[in-house]
Every structure is written in C-alpha cells, then in structure tokens.
Design goal:
The complex is a heterotetramer of chains A (361), B (372), C (334) and D (339).
Chain B lengths: L10 H4 L26 H15 L6 H4 L5 H5 L1 H10 L1 H23 L19 H5 L23 H37 L1 H16 L2 H11 L5 H12 L1 H15 L2 H8 L4 H9 L4 H24 L10 H10 L2 H4 L2 H29 L1 H5 L1
Chain C lengths: L1 H28 L4 H6 L9 H14 L6 H13 L14 H34 L3 H16 L2 H15 L20 H37 L3 H8 L4 H37 L5 H10 L3 H29 L1 H7 L5
Helix pairs in contact in C: 1-12, 5-6, 5-8, 5-10, 5-12, 6-8, 7-8, 7-10, 8-10, 10-11, 10-12, 11-12, 12-13
Chain D lengths: L2 E12 L2 E13 L4 E5 L6 H7 L7 E10 L2 E3 L4 H5 L6 E4 L13 H11 L4 H14 L16 H12 L6 E5 L7 H16 L5 E6 L2 H7 L2 E6 L2 E7 H6 L4 H8 L50 E4 L2 E3 L2 H6 L10 H10 L1
The chains are: A alpha/beta (361), B mainly alpha (372), C mainly alpha (334), D alpha/beta (339).
Chain lengths: 361, 372, 334, 339
C-alpha cells in the first residue's frame, strides 16, 4: 500500500462572472506517493497542480474521487480524524510572507502546533523540540525567535514553515511552489534543505511550474496539463526521454543559460501544440499555452490561424461554447458536472518500466 | 486587506507586503509574482457596494474601505503612535471629542442651573417640563452673562439642558454603534467565512434590510410602542444600521480567508471560530476601529432625528429633544435661535470631530496616505 | 442578463414581502391593543360598557381583526396586491390610496430633483476637488460639516435664516393657504415652487456633502490604479487620465446611490416636518400621531415600493454604464 | 549611442526614510541593443528602468543625467518629460496585464491615448492592427473590453500599444515574470521581433531571470544593492562573469538536467544590505567569499576587458591592475564622515 493514493480525483470550479459555467481544474487524476519519496508535480498555471495540493491538505474538497492516506479516505475526515491527519501531512505554500499573520511574531506558528497537538509538553520540552526542528532546516533559533515575519528573509520564512511541519510526525510534506518567490541566490539552499529532509525519510510532493527545479529534486515526476496527467514516471526517464509532446514542448521552451531557443525547432513544437488542440473536449486551457503558437513569423502564423480554435480571435471559449460539445448553455450545472466528470482522461500507457504517457489524439 | 475604493488598493496590490527578502529595501521594487489586482465585475460590484455603504451612514472614507492598512497596526505600534501624534487632523478630532466627552461626563455637575434640590436625578428631567428643574422665569431670553446660551420658552437655561443632553446622545450613539457593530460583525464574519448557501441567505437578508428606510420603519413601530429608554433606541438604531458593516466585513473576510496564513492555521488544527477571531479579525482591527467611529457618528445623527420627530425615549432629554421642543414651541417665529442652533451645532461639531479624526486615523493606518 | 435581473428582482420581492410582513405584524404583536387605543379617542365619560363592546367589535371587524391571524395575513396581502389599503380615518375617511397619491406628488417633486442634483453636483465638485488644491481645501471641510450636521438642525437653520429671518422663502405648508390645490392653476404651481425651495435645499444639502467627499476619494483612488499609471507613463494628458478616473469612480458611486436612498428619505421626512410640507413624510408622522393605522401601513408600503423601484432603476443604469456587468451578463463569458 | 546614463541617483521615499534605490549609476545602451537589467528583488533595477520614463510619486531624482539620442531626458521634470514619453522612450510596465482601462474598449482607449498625444488615430490604426496581428491578436480586440481578453492577451495588447509610435528606447519591466515557460518564450521572442522590425530601436529588459536574458539580450547589466556590479555582452556575462556576485548567482541556478545527486548547487549565503543606510565600500562585501581589506572602499565600475565593465577590486586585481593599498578602515570611515 502506498502512503498516499490519489484516486481519480476531479475538481470542478464554477467559472464565469455569475458562476454560470464550470471549469474542470482536475479530471480523474490518479497517482501514488510512496514513503520517503519526492514526487514533483509539474504544470503550468491553470493545470490544477495547486488545487491538487489543496485537496490533499483538505483545504479544498474534491468534486469526485478520493485521496487515501495509509488506506484511510481523507476526503471524508472530520474533527478528530482530520486533526490527526494533520499530524502526518503538512503543507508549505508559495508566498512565504502571506503564510504568516503579520500581526504575530514568528513563534506563533510553532505555538499553534504546541497548543493543538502537544498540549501536554512543557515549555522546556517544547523548546527543545523546536530547537531540533530548526536545526533540521539549518536555522539558528536566535535568528527567528521573537521576531516579526517581515524581519526574516523569504528563505528564512520558508524554512521556519518547514520546521513547523517537522514538529509534527510529518510523513508527507506538500511543498507548493515554495521557492518561486524567493530570490535566485537563496532558492537552491531551500531546495537542498528539502533534499536533506528526504534523506531523513520525509515524503515530499514538490509542486512547481519550473521544470529544472522538479528535475533537480525529485525521484518521480508527474506532468499535469489542463487537469489531467500528460506524463509521469521516474524523473530521469521523464526528463531524459520525454515521450509526450507537451513535455517535449515544455522542455524546449525552458530558457536555458547555455542553449539558445533558436537552436530548438519551434516548428516541431508548434506541430505538437496544434495536435493537442484537436480534441474538442480539451477543457478550457490556460491561455498561456496559446501564445506559444502565436509565433511571429507570418507564414507560421497563417498556418496557425487555420487550425486555431476560435478563442484566439476573441474571448476565450468557455467549455460550454466549444463546438461539437454535446451540451449547450441551458444545461443545468449538476448535469454538466456529471458529463464533465464522466469524460475519461486520456489513457496512460506504460512506455517503459516506471514511465507512463498519456495517449494523445 | 481588501478591495475597495481608496488610495490604498485592494487585494493584489494593496498590502505593501514585502515578499521576498523582508529588508527595508523590499518596498521599492519588483515583486516578481505579485498577481495583478483582480478586475472582475464581481470585485467591482462589491467595491461599489462598499463605497455606497460608506456613503450611506456618514462619511464615505473609501480609503479605509479599501481596507489597506490593518497590517501595520501590530507591526509597528510605536510608529503608529508616532504618526498619530503628528497628525493634525487626528489631534484636532480627538481634542474636540475630548472636550465634549468631558462636558458630557462632568457637565451636569457644573451646569450653572442644575436643579439644586434634585441633584441625584439631575440627568433625567422630563422633557417638556425640564425647564422646571433649571429655573423658572418665564420667557425665552437672549444669551447673556447669566445665561450663556440664553433661555428656553420655559425659562430653562439652554446651556444646562445641553450639558445634560450630551450624555444621552453619546449613550445612544454608543449603544447603537455597539449593537450595529455586533450584528454586522457576526453576520459579516459568518457569511465571509462559511460562504456557500449560508452566505447567500445572509446576503439576501442584508440586502433586504439595506433597502428599509430606518426612520420610516421607526415611525411605524413608534406608532404602536413608545421607546422608553435610550437602551431601546440604541438597539433599534443598531438593528437598522448594520447592513453596510456586514457587507464590508464579509468582503474583507473573503479576501483575508484566501491568505495562506489562514490555511496554515487550519493545518495547525485550529477551528473556524478561533481562526476568525485570532487570525482574521485582528487583521481588520484598524479597519474595524474606523467602522466603529463611523457607526458611532451615524448612530448619534440618527438618534437626533428620532428624538427630533418625538420618537425617542420619553423620559430623558437629548439634543434632538431640544430641537423638537424648540420647533414645537415656535422658536422659529420667536426668533429664538439660541434654543436650537447650539444643540445642533454641538452635535455637528461632535460628529465633525469624529469624521476628521477618522480621516486622520486612516492616514495613520495607511502608510500610502501618510506620504502626501 | 436574465439571471442577474432575476436575482435582483428576487431580492426586491423578498424585501417587499419583508416590509409587508413587518407592516402586518407590528400592530398585532406589539403590546397594547390598537383597537382599544384607537377607541380611546372616541370614548367619553358617559360611554357604557355595552356601547364600548359594540364599538370594539365593530371596529375590530372593520379592521379585519376578528378572524384568525393567518386569514388576516391572507387578506392583508390580497388587499395590498389589489390596491385596497383601507380608508384613512384621520383624513376625512378617504381611501388610503388616494390620500397617498395626493401627498406623494409633493414628496416626489422634492426628492427626485434633490437626489439627482445632489448626486450630479456632488460628484462633479468632488471630482474637481480631487485635482484642485484650493477647491479641495474648501470643499472637503464644508462637505464634512454638512455630513456631520444633524438633519433637523440643518432644516431648522435653513428655515430660520432663509425663512424666518431673511423672509426670502416661506416656511410652513406646501403652498399659500389661500389657494386650493389644483395642478392646473398657474398661481398654485408658482406657490408650490416657492414653498418647495427650502425643503428642497435641505434635502439637497443633506446628501450633497457625502457625494462630494466620496467622489473625491474615489477619484484619488482611481488615479493610483494601474491603468492611470500606465497612461501617465505614456504621457497621456491629465485631462484624459482624469476623465477615465471620473468615469470609473462613478460606478461605485452609483451603487452607493441605491444604498443612500433610505438615508435621504429619512432626511426628507425631517425636512417635511420642519417645513410643514404636505408630503408623505409629514403625512406618515401625522398618521402615526393620530393612530391612523391603515394610512400608516399604506404609506410605509408605498415608500418601500418607491425605494425598490428606484433600486431597480439604478440597477439598470449600472448595467448600462458598466460594460463588465453588461457583457458578462449577456453570456459572452458565462 | 542611443541611451547614455551618467551617475544617476534616484531615491525612493519610504516610511523609514529614503531608500537609495539607484545610487550613482552610469551605463549606455547602443542603437539596436537589447540590454538586460538583472538583479534580485530590491536591488533597484525597476526603479532605474522606470525613472527613465516616469518618476512616480515616491521617487526622487537626486542627481545625474540621462541622454537619449543626444538629447537630455528631463527625467526630473514630469511635464517636460511628457513630450518624450511613448515617442522617444516607452514602457511595458510590470503590471501590463492590468494596465488597460477596464471600462474602455481597447481600441477606444488607444485612440484616446494617441489623440491626447497629438496623434490622429486614423494615421496609425492600420499599423496597430497589423502589429496586433503580429502578436497573435485579431483585429477585433480593438472592439473588446480588457476583461474580455485573457491576461496574456492584455499583456500583448499593452506591448503593442506601448511601442506603436516606434520609440527609440523601450523599457520592458518584468514582462516575463508571471508567465509560464512556454509563454515566456513567446513573449521573449516577441521582444526580439519588435527590435528586428524596428518598432523600437533599443530596449532595456528588466528581469530577475538571468536565463531569459541569456536568450534575448545582447548585453547584460547586473545590479546589486542599488549599484552596478557588472556589464558585458550576454554571452560573456553568462560564460565568463568577473564579479563574484554574478558568478555565484549563475552557479546557483538549477538548469534542466542538473540533479542534486549528481551536481548539488549552492546558493549565496546572507542577504543584501538595506538601502536605507547602505554600508560603505563594496556592497557585496558581506556575502563575498573573496572579500579583502580593499573592499571597504567603494569599487569603481571599470572596463576591464573591451566591453566588459565590473565593479570589483578582486576582479581588478586579477586583471593585473594596480588597485593601490587598502585604505585602513578608520581612514575610510573618516573619509565617509567628512563627506
């Protein structure tokens, strides 16, 4: 049994100004996380990666599917059980500053854990625990105690939050873009610290949009696109031998210091992109993907224009506007939701051992 | 904090939250992933609602509805004090308030014509015969050395009556603000925190109450039951003036709820009530303080109107009552301006002082305004 | 669009139902017996108990109070929806609806121009204050002073200085007492206008300051937004930037107008009472004093209807001027 | 020589005092050059870039000058500067996604903006449409409100509008920061295309992301704590950095293919100094592993190799320059005080 099993998790959001539409943030996503494993969940904005993180942390309920932690379905947990769950699964978020209530001193994040989970521990015992947790994240207690959050650097803030999680008997840490707001010079230290924790047996779900970071740190990689898994597997396989065109195009778009974009064939990238657009059911994607198609050379553009969905010419199409969709505007949300959820995601095929790719087209 | 009009901006950009480094330098520069402030119509509507709410009771100080500041309060208390003492508006407003509050507290003791024989009940003279407590000469008189603000038709000393009235007006204002604040906070927090159908229902309720003209409603109710005490008047005022508070608090809660520290508190096993009280509410503290000031002013103004129309408590005298009897006993025709101008002016000055200190506080809370 | 308005109308229906129910329940749930207190006006020293009982049951029947509460409630709404609001006892036993009609016209000619003018002028001047220091330093304190003034005081001061002392305008009544109300009589209309001015001025002043102050802050806020920064960075004229700021600031002000209505009506009641102006505000207070319950209920419901209609008009106006609401509601995005 | 900035000093007013965000900065950008301006948050790069277009409320010009195409930019004079904005020097702001008036159709806003700059919309409308097409926006965006466009579409519309009058210099402030990788590439290529098509002559691209600059910039200027650290051609900066800060920064960037188990990276310990009261001498001194006594003195921004300028005593020493004896700290302090 895996430590964490994500089983056909779907999430629908209401969209549109007056909540008339529905958008599928996740569609039947399934994968597991083993004990002590670092899994990176990579996706662009709108891919549903943060939503999945929040579902695992029980901050957002899934629309369908379930998440099991050591066999127990966490989506049904309440009260005591949920409280206990948080003993083992914790999270750190993207914006370190926003993670602290600016009115309180940094110590409060530790105090809350003390009150809620270890009320029986005396002050001294607790201080000793906090000390060793801080040590694990290579922080000096004197640097953080009795300070307000704004007096710490972003890197320190994130370390404190990781230390807070370590105070519990944490087995899985959801790290949601935890270094994307840090300065380049301090990022890698936080990454290295996570690696150190992994060596102590901590499982980590490392959520990021940055492929190089995912590659740097993880054992396994899940590439999420528009709420479905495009490719997943052992990190060296996914990055060394990407099989899904989306993964390929992402890798090619990553700005690199020593390899110019020009040396990467944009046409190939474009073709892959357009192929992906074909199925009418592709839920409304992040607009972002779309402009990789709008490369500037007129010839290419003309080509792109013929095949582009209408959205590029005007407002983005909502799921409901897509031509050929079996439903139109008048359908009530519950039915629409059912339809959306019943659409199976692309099938995952194991192309080599430990490497799964979604079947395209 | 959240999204509303005012130099301090909403959601995305308002909080000058240092993101990456936390060094003093951070405020000047790029916050790489700072999301652009949302521009959806939803936000707009909410903003409008708030602005209107602001406009409604007394002073629309949209800056505070912009809800920027709170954060600063806890962060640099000394800094807050530093700017507070240097803010002329704040100092002016608070001085005015201090004078009137002192007058309300000690005034009756010092009133030149307080009833000598009945000092224990000096604060509650019956209103139409109140004159009897003070003096008994006969006709309205101009202000003079003996009667600084003149005398009423019944020979009451205007200054003395006013000093007694201040207490009642303050009391009703305070009670009204208190009740409106309690209702508004409770509903606003509940709706904002829980969301979903409960939010829908509470919003519907809020929207319904907001359309009710309070004064007219009170006339209807007053036709059947007389308001006998300042407490009742305060409750009534509170019961009709909370909706904009509820809306504003709801909107603020909505934005604060999205903050990561709220999620972190949940991950720490905290319950909803505790999170609202310990994490969300304190972050609105400065805003709530300003809200209370606005409520206080609007409650006092409302109570003056009620009392003026004879809908107020029957057994105490208030500033509104003074104007009421002035009108009833044709002070206009008698050209006895001293009968109604001073009480109204006192009221106006009190509220003016509150509004000005409100702006001052806003400037102190909100660093962006401080600059200019 | 339909969805939006359906929602809004839903709110209005609930608001109307709420007001009606308050209207219905207050006399029935409040301590004291309205019939009894009403009868006390007629009872002389020589009224016998039998007479009293007969009178009581007659009036209870007339008021419809002799049937179970649910039936009363049913009748009440039936009456309201058919425009049967009973008869006014204090106003020569005329039907309540016609009494209201007679007074409503006075209130409307007072309120509508005052609200519109205060809104338009207040916004203009507020926007101007946002950019002119001199104006700012004068408009702002004056605006706050108006806001801080209690309505009765404002009304009394206007009445006293412009009426009783300066004799520029009359105070008391809505027209010269020697004229019979007739909206075709030129003299009468002039007289109405003449009497109308001071209460109008009062109601105008009541809300003027608030708009000016609100607009000033909103414009200042808009001038700090990203689009304004961008325009300035590209060297757009101050005029353009201000015009955009003004237009965008006008939107929240408009929804503020809806919320303000209750307050303005309160100010209006006070002004009508001070000036003895024969509008609904004056009338409702009279009805309350003379315990003319049908009239009281009728006016209350009428005012609520007025507020709701005004709200609806504002909703429509908002949708017309804010493209975001308008287009979003056409389902372009939904 | 398109842009020449000489000893520019800009402060930024905050509650705690004036932040010396740009502290004596001199550099130049030639015609047709895309200069990347890199640095971590709070180093003053945005302030520097924005000050060349529009000094916002809290920014103050303390000294120094900027010259564009031989004419001095009156950067301290907001009014006089107006004439240059959009025509000579233009900006794609960091907030490009929210830079359009929410209640005006894009076309109408563009027309009104141009009219207020004395340009008849009709004369540029055709070109505007053409350029919108170039960035993948169809004609009808002119008839749409900003909220009908996605964030990325708004950003591109802003890019086109900012450059429609073919400014000599364009400041692009963090235009790629909030974007996904595939989008970053598209936007980066658009910027290059703008230059190639002559929509803008030269460009300053401000970003914290060195790898983007490695892709699109001709030269890179690295800032640290309000001062210039290094400037050179982008290949030189990436492959042959001379300033320890640049070296360490580049070494800490994970790249695709780098894994911790094969080649662990290290960051730079410490944090940048506060710019309220910046320390004397080299500002990177406290974090620099190579710091020596001389570093208590302010290093000059020197051209050590053709086209390669660095402000670092160690680099100068390595280049065989005589940097003179280290001034004893006490004397340095005294000198500081006497100024």
């Amino acid at each position: 049994m895996s430590m964490l099993e994500i089983d056909k998790v779907s999430k629908l959001y209401k969209s549109g100004t007056f909540g008339g539409g529905l958008k599928a943030a996740l569609r039947q996503v399934s994968f597991n996380i083993e004990r002590g494993e670092v899994v990176s969940l990579i996706g662009e904005s709108g891919s549903g990666k943060s939503t999945l993180g929040k579902i695992i942390l029980r901050l957002v309920p899934p629309s369908a599917g379930c998440v099991r932690f050591e066999g127990a379905d966490i989506t049904q947990m309440k009260g005591r059980a949920l409280h206990e769950y948080y003993r083992y699964v914790q999270g750190v978020f993207q914006d370190p500053f926003s993670s602290y209530n600016p009115l309180y001193k940094v110590d409060r994040v530790f105090d809350m854990v003390h009150q809620e989970f270890f009320p029986h521990l005396s002050g001294d015992e607790w201080a000793a625990r906090v000390g060793s947790a801080l040590e694990a994240v290579t922080l000096n207690p004197g640097d953080v105690f009795n300070k307000f959050p704004h007096q710490l650097s972003g890197g320190q803030q994130q370390r404190v939050l990781v230390a807070r999680a370590l105070l519990l008997d944490v087995k899985l840490l959801i790290a949601d873009e935890i270094i994307s707001m840090l300065d380049a010079s301090t990022r890698v230290d936080v990454l290295n610290m996570l690696v150190g924790l992994k060596k102590r047996g901590l499982g980590i779900l490392f959520i990021t949009h940055d492929l190089s970071l995912g590659n740097y740190i993880s054992d396994r990689t899940v590439i999420l696109r528009n709420g479905t898994i495009a490719e997943m597997g052992l990190t060296p396989l996914v990055f060394g031998n990407p099989r899904h065109s989306y993964t390929v195009s992402l890798l090619k778009a990553v700005p690199q210091l020593h390899k110019k974009w020009e040396d990467i064939d944009i046409d190939e990238l474009l073709a892959a992109e357009l192929d992906r657009e074909a199925p009418a059911l592709a839920p409304r994607g992040p607009e972002s993907r779309r402009y990789s198609k709008s490369s500037l050379a007129p010839a290419r553009q003309a080509r792109a224009k013929d095949i582009l969905p209408q959205g590029e010419q005007g407002p983005r199409p909502s799921l409901m506007d897509l031509p050929g969709a079996p439903w139109q505007r008048k359908m009530s949300s519950p039915r629409l939701a059912k339809l959306l959820l019943s659409q199976p995601p692309p099938e995952l095929v194991e192309v080599e051992e430990g490497h799964f790719v979604a079947v395209e087209g | 904090m959240s999204a509303n009009p005012g130099p301090a901006r909403a959601a995305g950009s308002s909080t000058p939250a240092p993101v990456a480094t936390g060094s003093p330098g951070e405020e000047l520069d790029e916050l790489p992933s700072a999301a652009p402030a949302p521009q959806g119509p939803g936000e707009r509507l909410e903003k409008g609602a708030l602005a209107g709410a602001q406009a409604a009771p007394v002073a629309p100080t949209p800056t505070l509805a912009a809800g920027a500041p709170a954060v600063r309060l806890g962060r640099q208390r000394w800094e807050f004090l530093h700017y507070a003492l240097r803010n002329r508006k704040l100092v002016f407003g608070f001085s005015v308030e201090l004078v009137f509050v002192l007058a309300a507290i000690f005034g009756p003791l010092a009133a030149p014509y307080s009833s000598a024989g009945d000092s224990s009940s000096a604060g509650v003279p019956l209103k139409d015969q109140c004159a009897a407590f003070f003096c008994a000469s006969g006709m309205t008189t101009h202000p003079s050395a003996h009667h600084l603000l003149g005398m009423t038709y019944f020979g009451g000393d205007v200054l003395s009556i006013m000093l007694y009235s201040l207490r009642e007006t303050y009391l009703v204002g305070f009670l009204g603000a208190l009740f409106a604040g309690i209702i508004g906070l409770a509903l606003g927090f509940t709706a904002g925190w829980r969301g979903g159908w409960l939010d829908d229902i509470l919003q519907l309720f809020t929207n319904v109450v907001i359309t009710m003209p309070a004064l007219v409603l009170l006339i209807v109710i007053g036709a059947y039951v007389k308001i006998h005490s300042p407490l009742f008047e305060g409750i009534f005022i509170g019961a009709t003036s909370w909706p904009w508070v509820a809306r504003a608090v709801r909107a603020q809660t909505f934005t604060l709820r999205e903050r990561d520290f709220v999620d972190l508190a949940r991950l720490s096993g905290k319950g909803g009530v505790s999170i609202v009280l310990k994490d969300i509410a304190p972050n609105m503290a400065s805003y709530l303080f300003l809200v209370f000031i606005l409520l206080f002013s609007s409650s006092m103004l409302l109570s003056v109107s009620y009392d003026f129309l004879g809908l107020g408590p029957t057994n105490v005298v208030s500033l509104g009552d003074m104007m009421n009897s002035a009108m009833l006993w044709s002070a206009l025709n008698l050209k006895a301006w001293w009968w109604f101008i001073p009480p109204g002016a006192a009221m106006a000055l009190i509220v003016f002082g509150l509004l000005i200190s409100n702006i001052g506080l806003d400037e102190v809370f909100n660093p962006k305004l401080r600059e200019s | 669009m339909r969805r939006y308005f359906a929602r809004k109308i839903g709110i209005y229906i609930v608001a109307f139902w709420f007001a009606g129910t308050v209207d219905f329940l207050v006399p029935r749930l409040m301590p004291g017996d309205p019939v009894q207190s009403y009868l006390s006006n007629f009872i002389g020293a020589n009224t016998t108990v039998t007479q009293y009982r007969a009178m009581y049951s007659a009036f209870a029947k007339a008021f419809g109070l002799n049937v179970p509460l649910w039936d009363q409630y049913w009748h009440f709404w039936d009456g309201v929806l058919h425009g049967h609001m009973g008869i006014s006892i204090s106003q020569s036993s005329l039907p309540v609806t016609s009494v209201i009609r007679g007074a409503a016209i006075y209130s409307l000619i007072l309120l509508v121009p005052a609200i519109v003018l205060a809104y338009v002028l207040g916004n203009r001047i507020g926007a101007m204050a946002a950019r002119r220091k001199v104006l700012d330093n004068t408009v702002l304190p004056i605006g706050y002073l108006f806001q801080a003034s209690p309505y009765p005081w404002l009304a009394l001061a206007v009445a006293f200085y412009l009426g009783a002392v300066a004799h520029w305008f009359p105070i008391g009544s809505g027209y010269a007492q020697n004229l019979l109300p007739s909206w075709t009589n030129w003299h009468f209309i002039v007289s109405v206008m003449y009497h109308w001015f001071l209460p109008f001025l009062t109601v105008f002043l009541v809300s003027f300051g608030g708009w000016a102050i609100g607009m000033r802050s909103l414009v200042i806020y808009e001038l700090e937004t990203d689009y304004a920064r961008y325009l300035r960075a590209l060297g757009a004229s101050q005029r353009l930037v201000r015009r955009y700021a003004y237009r965008n600031a006008a939107l929240p002000q408009l929804s503020g107008l809806a919320i303000q209505l209750g307050t303005v009506i309160g100010g209006n009641v006070v002004a009508e009472v001070v000036f003895q102006y024969p509008g609904l505000g004056h009338l409702i207070l009279q009805a309350a004093d003379s315990q003319d319950y049908f009239l009281l209920m009728g006016i209350f419901l009428f005012i609520i209807i007025g507020v709701l209609v005004a709200n609806f008009v504002i909703d429509i106006a908002y949708v017309m001027i804010d493209p975001r609401t308008r287009l979003a509601m056409q389902g372009a995005q939904a | 020589m398109s842009l020449k900035v000489d000893n520019l000093r800009i402060t930024y007013r905050t509650l705690r005092g004036d932040v010396k965000a740009v502290d004596g900065v001199s550099f130049s950008v030639s015609d047709g050059e895309i200069m990347g301006l890199a640095g971590e948050s709070g180093c003053g790069k945005s302030t520097l870039g924005n000050s060349l277009v529009f000094l916002e409320g809290r920014m103050r010009h303390l000294g120094g000058r900027a010259e564009l195409d031989g004419r001095e930019l009156p950067i301290a004079d907001t009014r006089a500067m107006n004439e240059y904005r959009m025509r000579q020097v233009s900006l794609i702001p960091q907030y490009a996604m929210s830079a359009l008036n929410p209640t005006r159709k894009f076309g109408k806003m563009a027309a009104e903006l141009l009219k207020s700059r004395g340009v008849r919309f009709a004369t540029v409308e055709e070109e505007l449409r053409r350029r919108l097409g170039l960035v993948g926006l169809a004609d009808n965006v002119l008839n749409l409100y900003p909220f009908e466009l996605s964030g990325g579409m708004r950003q591109r519309a802003t890019m086109v509008l900012s450059t429609i009058l073919n400014p000599s210099l364009l400041i692009a402030d963090e235009v790629t920061s909030a974007l996904d990788v595939s989008t970053q590439r598209a936007v980066g290529e658009m910027l290059m295309e703008f230059r190639e098509r002559g929509f803008v002559k030269s460009m300053i691209v401000i970003t914290h992301d060195m790898s983007i600059l490695a892709q699109i910039a001709d030269s890179i200027l690295v800032m640290y704590a309000g001062k210039l650290a290094e400037k050179a051609g982008s290949d030189t900066v990436v492959n042959n950095p001379l300033h320890p800060y640049t070296q360490l920064l580049l070494a800490s960037l994970p790249e695709v293919g780098v894994r911790y188990d094969t080649s662990a990276l290290v960051g730079i310990p410490g944090r940048p100094p506060s710019l309220l009261h910046p320390p004397a001498g080299c500002r990177f001194r406290a974090r620099c592993p190579f710091a020596f006594e001389k570093c208590t003195e302010d290093p000059p921004f020197m051209e050590l190799q053709p086209g390669h300028q660095v402000a670092c005593w160690k680099a100068m020493k390595d280049a065989g320059l005589d940097i003179g004896p280290a001034v004893p700290p006490a004397a340095a302090v005294g000198e500081e005080a006497s100024r």
